[in-house]
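Much of the work behind modern protein science is quiet bookkeeping, done one molecule at a time. The protein below has been through that process, and both of its lines are reproduced in full.


***
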Amino acid sequence: MKWAYSIQQKFKAAALLGVVCAIVLVTSLLGKHHMDKLGNSFSSVFNDRLVVESYIYMISDHMYQKKLASDNFAEMGLANYQSEVESHNQAIAELLEYYDKTFLTKEEEEHLKKFKANIFSLEALEDQYLHADQNIEVTQAQFDANFIQALSNLRNLSNIQIKEGQVLTDQSQRIVYGSTLLSNLEMVILFCIAFMLQAIVAASKPLVSRTWQKGRLN
């Protein structure tokens, strides 16, 4: 029956080695999954938040330039005013196209929709400046009210970038913590298995030694 005991020990060792391989495979797959999520999180922070914040800043700058042109309409003259305002409107439209291609939260989408409505109203007022006769009543107060509302929506959009950026940062930290915890658990399990393998090897050594000695005596 000694051969049966030897085979039993080998099966135990093989089973433990199989468990080791399974643990390494599972942790490797989980690690890859965590790294993919971490990469996506960092990519989203850059592409959907930092880049968008730069879009918001540039849109705000173009709007202030348009406001300045509106305030100095009389000094600039019709031709200069039209040329400058159209260039700013084109730049804002291009930035909004880029913005639309990024990931938008539901709240962000709502504020962006409101901002686009503000831009449409401002351009309508600008059009009245350009094509109306002298008796049209287009007051600076109307323009200022739309301008202030547009800036308010821009600030809301900027605040969303900060909030969502913090969410992504927290998510990245949780991923890193989970990966660290998984690695520590893997080390503990592998240590336990290594200890069990050592115990199996130690238990089988006397059997091998006694068998070899009896063979020599014969």
Notes: Residues 28-172 form a domain with the de novo design (two linked rop proteins) fold (CATH 1.20.1440). Confidence is low (pLDDT under 50) at residues 1-5, 207-218. DSSP finds five helices and no strands in the chain.
